Amino acid sequence: MISATTIELGGVEIIEYKAPLFGKDDVQRGATLTREDIQAAPTRDVKSVAAQAASVFQKDEGDDLNVRGSRADATDYYVDGIRIRGSQKLPQSGIEQVTAIVGGTPAQYGDATGGVISITTRGPSKDFTGGLEVVSSEMFDQYGYNLVSADLSGPLMKKKLENGGEKAVLGFFLSGEYQSEKDPDPSGIGMYKLKDNVYQDLIQNPIELYQTSATSFGSYNAAQYYTMDDFEKVKTKNNVKQIGYRFTAKFDYQPAEFTTFTLGGSFNTNDRRSYAINRVAYNFEENPQIIDRDYRVFGRLTQRLASTYKSEKENSSVFKNVYFTVQAEYSKNQQINQDPVHKDNLWDYGYIGKFSRTSSPLYFAIDDTTREQIGYSNTFDFQAGGMNSIAEAYTNAAYGAFNGAGVNVSSLDQIRSAGGVRNGDATNSVMAIWEGVGNLRNTYQNFDNDQYRVTLSGNADIKKHSF
Predict the structure, then answer these.
(1) What digits encode the pLDDT tens for the residues 307-326?
(2) Model pTM score
């Protein structure tokens, strides 16, 4: 049975509120992107995510950031409070939030002259959770994009509460990511490359020789007579593959309600081939290998003073919300720039082979019984070293021409004039634009930076002021 009921409503007071243009205590300017924002973003690069904030400029995907017109090196990056000197790459599933500070920089960030990008990684969850993501374009295009990402989180230790429930005392979060790309920055209109059979012929016969005198030869690059029929259009650049692994871990331990210990770290490695426009036509096999490795680990203690977190009725003190944090951290950034075959075998760089000199004395006949030595006759022989086979083909071709004409090689300058390559030499360019095939990049670099840091921060609210 339905009965009619009358309810008397009290008065409703409408209070109009208008947000102030500037908050009295809010001098920091920027934006914070949450995990939901990051997951929805059409990029997995942290810097590209931060570029969504106002006053932050990024020229292209993955490039450095310019904040309010400052130079890129004026932008500082922090991960869990650790100042980053190497790569900022992290597994996307391991990022909790990204904050871009473009003005009113807090004192804790020290001497930042541009902006600050602060990244916070995810912490443990009270229940066991996990995720797996697999992405691949191998079956659908030529870009060769592959991604595998996984994360796992949960409690390791719990304690009983007075109300019968449970509370996690020790928890963990782990995340990892593998990513490979055939071309991390493909052209929107495609690229031209030598057809495979043309390239194979080029590396075996890089130069054509012609005789300039009875004892000398000249040469020209075989590549300078190629036409469009020798090239084909492709979607990706040659030999620029990139492979990366990224891991993060964090453990939280809360032995008491107002005490928290955190131990965390991350590892990132990226193996790529460096691209240069002057190598793209003929000498792409000499693209150097660049390996970046970043290690970070930190320990943090956060202690809150229990008496200052009571309600206003229970706490008569002028001090409220008092806490301090001590963090110790270590980070290591390493970059290796090398030939992918020679690596740190420094004597293999630029080595073409062994040039052996045989000297025979030269005499001038003064009379029938007297001769005077006037010098030496030199002969240079060559034995390929096998370390740089394409560059060796230049020298083999030059020696083949001299031997075929019955001309003695009395000076290594003859070999160079004929287009051959001596130890440490560069091959001749093509049309003064492109590197000749086999041109050696005789560079090995190993950068290793270590950083140790201890920070202390805290907070105390005194009446209406926060310190």
Answers:
(1) 655 555 555 667 778 888 99
(2) 0.82
